[in-house]
Amino acid sequence: IRIIAYDADLGTSGTVDYYIGTLNVPYFTINQTTGAIIYRAGVTFSNLNTTLFPVQFTVFAQDRGIPPRISPVNATITLYL
């Protein structure tokens, strides 16, 4: 899963970074540069607590402008085993 945001500014101001807004998102983290949502280290299908699904959280995309601009998007991950 990947979040993609675009910024029309040139140079560093147009670079977009990604953050998960919820402090405790079980099992997942986000790559700040690529927006890829990935499993946390050590997570396997055998140690997943399926009662925690679906997992809902907010992802923020923020440019590096001055002042920075930020946009939220809600994400839901549902796991079917």
Automatic annotation (TrEMBL):
GO molecular function annotation: calcium ion binding
Multidrug resistance protein MdtA-like beta-barrel domain segment(s): 21-58
InterPro entries per the UniProt record, alphabetical: Cadherin-like_sf (IPR015919), MdtA-like_b-barrel (IPR058626)
Entry GO CC: membrane
Highest rank taxon of the organism: Eukaryota
Pfam families: Beta-barrel_RND
CDD domains given in the database record: Cadherin_repeat
Protein's name in the database: Multidrug resistance protein MdtA-like beta-barrel domain-containing protein
